[in-house]
Design goal:
With 246 residues, the protein is α+β, with helices and mostly antiparallel strands. It has one domain (3-245). It is built from five helices and nine strands; from the N terminus they run βββββαβββαβααα. The protein has helices at residues 85-91, 151-164, 174-197, 203-224, 229-245; strands at residues 3-5, 8-12, 17-27, 40-52, 59-73, 114-132, 135-138, 147-150, 172-173. Strands 1, 2, 3, 4, 5, 6, 7, 8 and 9 form a nine-stranded mixed β-sheet that branches. The longest helix has 24 residues, at 174-197. It is globular. It starts with a strand and ends with a helix.
Length: 246
């Protein structure tokens, strides 16, 4: 069962704040649940803090630093459409639902959690690996660097998206925010991956990069299946950003 592990944490009830350090989202090994060395860390954040405006209708600002994401492809030889450890995370119920999915989007939600500001400090590092013929191979084993996405880039894209969304709305409902953030991350990761795909790097490296690109595109297409207003805005902002880079 997926769980969250923290080294230190604290809540300031009057100031409406939360801080923690060494946050990890862990996917335990089915056979070795109690052995930490056998657990798979999908996401780690060195420091995370959050503040909210009220308890009745919370609008949350989040800040985090030194973020590391691990993307591990399952056995790519057996799968036509590669899947990753993040698919297993979703099947285990992470992230949790913030609202009733059966409730129409147009229905007002009293007390719904909303996300206003996201500040990503330092660099978001993405480590890549895959399983082939039962053997785990990392990108570094193949001579490829981890992908680094500047934190200020994630912050800026999110800020622009929120500023343009909803004609002056300063925050986004949590369920929309998670999908929008997923879109931002996948788009930025695919953009960085394009640079690695260029060139002849050998059959094993090509298979690795091709499987990873396919898995990310599949994940993005699943978000495309139910695009909300905020996601359309994120799409427009990312398109402008991509044009400005080239």
């Amino acid at each position: 069962m997926t769980h969250i592990r923290l080294r230190e944490w604290g809540v300031e009830f009057r100031e409406r704040g939360f801080q923690c350090s060494n946050l990890k989202i862990v996917i335990p090994n089915d056979d070795q649940d109690e052995i930490e060395e056998e657990e798979e860390v999908a996401l780690s954040i060195d420091k995370l803090s959050a503040n909210w405006t009220s308890y009745r209708q919370p609008i949350i600002d989040v800040e985090f630093s030194d973020t590391k994401i691990n993307i591990k492809l399952e056995e790519i030889v057996k799968l036509r459409k590669p899947r990753s450890n993040w698919h297993r995370l979703k099947k285990s119920g992470f992230p949790p639902a913030f609202s009733d999915s059966k409730q129409p989007k147009s229905t007002p939600k009293t007390g719904a959690i909303r996300l206003r500001q996201i500040r990503c400090n330092d660099v978001c590092s993405v480590a890549l690996s895959m399983t082939i013929f039962g053997r785990s191979i990392s990108s570094t084993d193949l001579g490829l660097p981890d992908i680094s996405i500047p934190g200020e880039l994630i912050t800026d894209v999110w800020t622009l998206a929120v500023a343009e969304y909803g004609e002056g709305e300063e925050s986004v409902e949590a369920s929309d925010a998670l999908e929008a953030l997923s879109r931002i991350f996948l788009k930025l990761l695919l953009d960085e991956l394009e640079a690695l795909v260029i060139g002849d790097r050998g059959p094993l490296v090509d298979a690795f990069l091709g499987a990873l690109k396919s898995a990310l595109e599949t994940a993005l297409s699943r978000i495309d299946g139910h695009v909300s207003d905020v996601e359309q805005t994120v799409e427009a902002v990312l398109a402008e950003y991509s044009e400005s880079r080239h």
